[in-house]
């Protein structure tokens, strides 16, 4: 597919993106690893500064959900034509571009609008601050590979063939063959995921499709297609409007969730050091607790809470820290639980255990089919059953927890926080209510909130605008309502389509939409629909085999 419509009165050449982060060779052959400055993100990526010299969007356009070519031309803002735009530039955008390239779409036919330096930047930041750095295992399986659509050879196979010993070769393969029976689920290291994505980005020419800056809003085009308003980055920032036939929104998490008690505490005391969120930088907590005895309360029962507790216990065992951990849980799980014998999770001693974020049947089994067929009420109930904080059951982790229980350094309690105060000594005092309704007080040096990540759509500027001005409908959980093909059908514009993927679609027809494999599934569904419209080719069996061979040789699609 070529241009989205008639040539505008004012046309600008799109700003040339950088060639991508530089690569640093490792000692192991031709593979590459991220340079040191990209292995750990010290601060969250932020929006570019606003250039007051950039052309303003007229008020009548801001209020209108549909724009005409004439009105856009009259605004004086340069227009760039490109068939497909993906907004976000994270994991969702990356796998979308990867699938489109495999489907025969050229790099110049796609534009990635992003404020990220590389597509794993936000993911690396969130996992890093929540104590899952690149050398730690993430919650994914061996074949969920954003850089490898086919999932073969898997992360486990890659590690096996990189090994220089018989034991190192057999261990990951044995783990995969016996996982969840004799061994824990095999999971890749975060750094392995980032390394593979860098290599694939170079192979498919991803960097040539990237425009760095901030996407502000998306509007339907009267003649079909969409306008995406974008502010570029660089020495001279410029406002640009991308005119495209199709748009994909893959903006990631709308925001970090700051619960009311945290907001109230910070408003009253102005202290963000003692009461912290797991997804904001809080390394000072661990450094301080290594230097002196102290108590920390960790709230939450998911993977972030378990990673933080693991870090605290490691500091005790490896650095001699004398930290006492109080684990505060709203729901204390005492054993296997669920609505029926066929929908039960294992659990115990406070934790609910599940190998991955969602039941495996929701990726491609009965739960996936039930969600796709369900009406709103049934779908809402299914989401309620499948959701909830869980963490994987790992034998080494369980042994560490048991040691901490025996020596008194770890205690799990059930309760909810009513209020958090600051004591005269600077500590925090939690006023809690236990399961029976009785009040209790806990005094600690630090409180780490690890209860969740996703905020309301209103917290994201572009998504809020899409709902309030363009009329994008919400689903049963208040996120973007998309079809089984991930299209926001209410915003279809002539032959043009707008799609959404990732966390912003939670509550629609696909539960693991924000998982690595879920993002690839969404990209495949979107690519199939675009191929039906003449943009790209169907990924048939023959094309898939041919493209896999090119992938294995490191040749561009």
Automatic annotation (TrEMBL):
Positions of the UniProt region annotated as Disordered: 1-53
Low complexity bias (residue ranges): 1-13
Bias (Pro residues) ranges: 14-24
InterPro entries: FAD/NAD-bd_sf
Protein name: Uncharacterized protein
Organism encoding this protein: Actinokineospora bangkokensis
């Amino acid at each position: 597919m070529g241009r989205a419509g008639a040539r505008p009165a004012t046309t600008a050449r799109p700003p040339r993106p950088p060639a991508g982060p530089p690569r640093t060779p490792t000692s192991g052959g031709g593979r590459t690893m991220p340079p040191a400055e990209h292995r750990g993100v010290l601060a969250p990526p932020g929006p570019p500064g606003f250039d007051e010299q950039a052309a303003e969007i007229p008020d009548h356009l801001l209020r209108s959900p549909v724009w005409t070519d004439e009105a856009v031309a009259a605004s004086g803002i340069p227009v760039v034509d490109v068939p497909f735009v993906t907004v976000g530039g994270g994991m969702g955008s990356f796998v979308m571009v990867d699938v489109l390239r495999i489907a025969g779409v050229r790099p110049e036919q796609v534009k990635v609008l992003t404020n990220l330096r590389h597509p794993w930047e936000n993911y690396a930041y969130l996992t890093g601050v929540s104590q899952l750095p690149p050398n730690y295992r993430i919650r994914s399986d061996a074949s969920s590979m954003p850089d490898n659509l086919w999932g073969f050879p898997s992360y486990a196979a890659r590690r096996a063939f990189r090994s220089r010993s018989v034991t190192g070769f057999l261990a990951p393969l044995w783990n995969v063959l016996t996982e969840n029976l004799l061994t824990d689920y095999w999971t890749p290291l975060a750094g392995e995921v980032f390394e593979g994505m860098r290599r694939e980005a170079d192979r498919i020419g991803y960097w040539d499709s990237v425009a760095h800056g901030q996407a502000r809003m998306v509007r339907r085009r009267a003649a079909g297609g969409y306008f995406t308003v974008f502010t570029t980055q660089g020495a001279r920032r410029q406002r640009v409007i991308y005119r495209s036939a199709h748009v994909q929104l893959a903006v990631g998490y709308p925001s970090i969730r700051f619960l009311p008690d945290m907001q109230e505490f910070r408003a009253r005391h102005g202290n963000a050091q003692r009461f912290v969120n797991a997804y904001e930088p809080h390394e000072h907590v661990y450094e301080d607790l290594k230097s002196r005895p102290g108590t920390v309360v960790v709230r939450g029962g998911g993977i972030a809470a378990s990673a933080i507790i693991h870090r605290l216990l490691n500091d005790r065992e490896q650095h001699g820290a004398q930290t006492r951990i109080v684990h505060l849980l709203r729901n204390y799980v005492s054993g296997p639980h669920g609505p029926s014998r066929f929908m039960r999770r294992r659990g115990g001693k406070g934790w609910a255990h599940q190998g991955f974020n969602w039941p495996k049947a929701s990726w491609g089994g009965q739960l996936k089919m039930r969600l796709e067929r369900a009406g709103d009420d049934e779908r809402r109930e299914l989401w309620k059953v499948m959701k909830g904080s869980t963490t994987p059951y790992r034998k080494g982790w369980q042994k560490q927890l048991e040691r901490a229980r025996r020596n008194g350094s770890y205690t799990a309690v059930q309760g909810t926080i009513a209020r958090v105060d600051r004591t005269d000594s600077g500590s925090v005092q939690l006023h809690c209510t236990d399961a029976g309704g009785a009040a209790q007080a806990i005094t600690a040096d630090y409180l780490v909130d690890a209860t969740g990540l996703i905020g309301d759509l209103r917290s994201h500027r572009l998504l809020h605008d899409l709902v309030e001005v363009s009329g994008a409908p919400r689903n049963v959980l208040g996120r973007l309502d998309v079809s089984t093909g991930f299209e926001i059908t209410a915003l279809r514009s002539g032959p043009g389509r707008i799609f959404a993927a990732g966390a912003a679609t939670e509550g629609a027809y696909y539960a693991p939409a924000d998982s690595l494999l879920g993002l690839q599934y969404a990209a495949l569904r979107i690519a199939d629909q675009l191929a039906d419209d003449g943009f790209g080719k169907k990924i048939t069996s023959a094309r898939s085999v041919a493209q896999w061979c090119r992938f294995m040789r490191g040749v561009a699609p």
